[in-house]
């Protein structure tokens, strides 16, 4: 079978303007809870797209760690490629794809760093080996070999002890959304798309988009 012949006709559910809540963050929470209940593998995995100073985009999968009315939070190395790109362009896009539910959620907005207090609280809640990894890795920088990387980890483990402090180069970002789109797969590629756009007064306008 050729790649061009790979296709699936979506038929699990539907989505209308009447189905969704007025607040898109609450609507996301509803869908996220349904993904959890359906035991979707890693429902907190999302694609994060950033843009470099030269206009070149890049994307990768990261894990959301918190969301509320303020936005969507993840953690990383500030010196990583995504961190450098966010420094040059403070806007980003997120994408959740819950294949088993035939759903996607697109989220766009500006990005800000979260507080040191929140960074410390989350860092100290992580497994010890994950904390050591964050200290040892100069994320996105070249390394000569796996052996060198493991040596860096071992050295960081010895130096840090059982209660390592959060390194200054590691912390959280929050995407503050101004656009969210909820996509539900439908038969014949006539998918349902409900988009929310934030208005200047802070309220949300929603509309149906053509597939």
Number of domains: 1
Q: What is the rounded distance between the termini? A: 26 Å
The helix-and-strand class reads alpha+beta
For this structure, the CATH topology is Pnp Oxidase, Chain A
Largest sheet: 9 strands, antiparallel
The averaged pLDDT comes out at: 96
Share of residues in strands? 25-35%
Number of helices: 5
SSE pattern, N- to C-terminal: HEEEEHEEHHHEEE
Rounded Rg: 20 Å
Oligomer: single chain
What is the secondary structure topology, with strand pairs?
Blueprint: H1 24-37, E1 45-51, E2 57-63, E3 66-68, E4 71-77, H2 81-88, E5 91-98, E6 103-113, H3 116-125, H4 128-136, H5 146-160, E7 170-184, E8 192-198, E9 204-209
Antiparallel strand pairs: 1-2, 1-5, 3-4, 4-7, 5-6, 6-7, 7-8, 8-9
Helix pairs in contact: 4-5
Overall description:
The protein has helices at 24-37, 81-88, 116-125, 128-136, 146-160, and strands at 45-51, 57-63, 66-68, 71-77, 91-98, 103-113, 170-184, 192-198, 204-209. The chain has 211 residues and is of the alpha+beta class. It has one domain: Pnp Oxidase, Chain A (Roll). Strands 1, 2, 3, 4, 5, 6, 7, 8 and 9 form a 9-stranded antiparallel β-sheet that branches. α4 packs across α5.
Quick overview:
This protein is an alpha+beta fold and 211 residues long.
Features:
211 residues; single chain; 9 strands; alpha+beta
């Amino acid at each position: 079978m050729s790649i061009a012949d790979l296709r699936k006709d979506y038929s699990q559910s539907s989505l209308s303007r009447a189905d969704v809540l007025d607040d898109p963050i609450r609507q996301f929470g509803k869908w996220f809870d349904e993904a959890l209940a359906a035991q979707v593998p890693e429902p907190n995995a999302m694609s994060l797209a950033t843009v470099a100073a030269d206009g070149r985009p890049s994307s990768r999968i990261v894990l959301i760690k918190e969301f509320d009315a303020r936005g969507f939070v993840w953690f990383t190395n500030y010196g990583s490629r995504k961190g450098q790109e966010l420094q040059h362009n403070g806007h980003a896009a997120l994408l959740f794809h819950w294949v088993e539910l035939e759903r996607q959620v697109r989220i766009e907005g500006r990005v800000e760093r979260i507080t040191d207090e929140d960074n410390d609280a989350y860092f100290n809640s992580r497994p010890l080996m994950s904390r050591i990894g964050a200290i040892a890795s100069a994320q996105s920088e070249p390394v000569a070999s796996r052996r060198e990387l493991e040596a860096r980890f071992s050295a960081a483990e010895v130096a840090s002890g059982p209660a390592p402090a959060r390194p200054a180069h590691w912390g959280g970002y929050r995407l503050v959304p101004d656009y969210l789109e909820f996509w539900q797969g439908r038969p014949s590629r006539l998918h349902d798309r409900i988009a929310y756009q934030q208005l200047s007064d802070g309220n949300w306008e929603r509309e149906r988009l053509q597939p």
